[in-house]
Amino acid sequence: MSATATTQYSSYRNKVARSRATSEPVWIRYLLTTIALTFLTLFLFVPLAAVFTEALRKGFDTYITALVDPDALSAIKLTFIAALIAVPLNLVFGVAAAWAITKFEFKGKSILITLIDLPFAVSPVIAGLIYVLIFGIQGWFGSALVDNDIKVIFAIPGIVLATIFVTFPFVARELIPLMQAQGKDEEEAGLVLGASGWQILWRITLPNVKWGLLYGVILTNARAMGEFGAVSVVSGHIRGMTNTLPLHVEILYNEYNYAAAFAVASLLALLALVTLALKTFIEWQVARNAIQHESA
Amino acid sequence: MKKSLLAIAVLAAALSFAAPITASAKDITLLNVSYDPTRELYQDFNAAFSKYWLAKTGDKVTVKASHGGSGKQARAIIDGLDADVATLALAYDVDQLHEKGKLIPKDWQKRLSHNSSPYTSTIVLLVRKGNPKGIKDWDDLVKPGISVITPNPKTSGGARWNYLAAWAFAQKKFGGDEAKTKEFVGKLLKNVPVLDTGARGSTTTFVERGIGDVLLAWENEAFLAQKELGVGKFEIIVPSLSILAEPPVTVVDKFAKKHGTEAVAKAYLDYLYTEEGQEIAAKNYYRPTLESVAKKYESQFPKVNLIKIDDAFGGWQKAQKTHFSDGGTFDQIYQK
């Protein structure tokens, strides 16, 4: 019985493959492939290769010197600090927001969803200026901050704040569709069987969304380390103190120090490559899990 | 296991972040917030000053630097970038520190000699090798088909000097006819394809990206491009008339007082006026004000017919109001 079904299916597949609707003339196939590949080469591979060749043009020693320069090291450190603070906070916020939106009904839900998207919608420059307006010494809390000797903008807290602002939608945006698709049946079943709220979160909700969550975290991290506009406004550009990696690249470039600029830029490019690799890995995992689910 | 590893990593990050703060407490740190093209000058000067101060007092001074368009930098100081000294492109931007921020006294410019400008510069034209478009003077910049690179006067000090130099030339050419002067500067601006925010951005546009036929530049920036970026690729054209650019320096009293660095900050600026300081300025292609050093480097700087901002425009306050404030001549011309 099942053998006949399989043969029937494969002969049907062959028919589809040979039908005119799915097989374009050869030249169209080649044309489309060429266009896609040319685009990829022009806009992806060439710039990426350019970054690395420029970085290494004056030799490997210059490359290393540029990276161990005290200002570069401090930029790397600051970038990591900003990411280390911004990513966990956004992780917690993203899970909480996605949980609230997908599992409960409440008034103002659509407003919350819109607000989460706000950082995508506003220009990063505005994100930076908001903090200058609030925390600058001419701003709302300016005199209070000065009196207590607290520095927010043109110092690390401002950079962290700006980074959190531009990266906060990523985790929630990844999780909301996923959790909506999964529905709340499993959680309800857990509740009926007597699980507490925390048990439901740790044993049902989070395991269900773990890959989406991880993907959101990776995107958040990539953006947190690469953010330029918002951070540029609140940084003050003090070298060795408030420069992140992207800002350091700009400074080096403006000082005609092209080899060093590209060396530092290559770090950011590496970060992008690692992000891509992790993303591919996660997608592969998700696909594998889906297949296992279906066969089970 | 994993959790404790994470905890250690976070702790290590926190410690490494805290360590330099405690270590630098006994050293002195000065923050010099400056305009765009002074990067190389202050890199040299800061090293020299640290050495001088260590020898004189035994204290270790680290001078941190921040560079950007002059107007933008003044804005940042007013918003709380706590500079000990400000070394900006023009007096108006420093005036703002008094007017908008109450950070310095009103008479700040009288505190140091030469209007608080230890070095001066001027505006010249930088063209590509062989001067293919035959540019000789400001007249040639308004011709159709000439692409002129200059930064945005709203954010850049250099751009404001550029604009005023062109204005002064036109004023003289048309015998003070305001409408014709405006038309001349308007035509010039029509030939500008990109307005970068700072002088350095414009130099990069012209030198590195190869855009434009002529760059309106600080003399020091033009020398730097010609001598160190593309040897033999550019030529400096000295126009028949230009403007004496005085980039002033000041201690930012309020912040220096808070940091307890007033004395060092003052010494830092005074050192700019000494023979060593003036030599460093001259080597970085700024015109020295100290007679002896000026004489030594006389041949380096071409003789230019220089007008002064006070004579031609009645000072920076007035020039800013007429030309660069909202609704000023720049807005009137550029929005057409």
UniProtKB/TrEMBL annotation, chain A:
GO terms for cellular component: plasma membrane. CDD domains: TM_PBP2. Keywords: Cell inner membrane, Cell membrane, Membrane, Sulfate transport, Transmembrane, Transmembrane helix, Transport. InterPro entries: CysW_permease, MetI-like, MetI-like_sf, Sulph_transpt2. Residues 76-279 form the ABC transmembrane type-1 domain. Its main location: membrane. Gene3D superfamilies: MetI-like (1.10.3720.10). It is a multi-pass membrane protein. The keyword Transmembrane applies. PROSITE patterns: ABC_TM1 (PS50928). It is found in: Cell inner membrane. The complex is composed of two ATP-binding proteins (CysA), two transmembrane proteins (CysT and CysW) and a solute-binding protein (CysP). Part of the ABC transporter complex CysAWTP (TC 3.A.1.6.1) involved in sulfate/thiosulfate import. Probably responsible for the translocation of the substrate across the membrane. This is Sulfate transport system permease protein CysW. It comes from Methylotenera oryzisoli.
Automatic annotation (TrEMBL), chain B:
It is found in: Periplasm. PANTHER family: SULFATE-BINDING PROTEIN (PTHR30368). One of its GO terms (biological process) is sulfate transmembrane transport. PROSITE patterns: PROK_SULFATE_BIND_2 (PS00757). It comes from Methylotenera oryzisoli. The keyword Ligase does not apply. Belongs to the prokaryotic sulfate-binding protein family. Keywords: Periplasm, Signal, Transport. The keyword NADP does not apply. One of its GO terms (molecular function) is molecular carrier activity. Pfam families: SBP_bac_11. Residues 1-25 form the signal peptide. Gene3D superfamilies: Periplasmic binding protein-like II. One of its GO terms (cellular component) is periplasmic space. This is Sulfate ABC transporter substrate-binding protein.
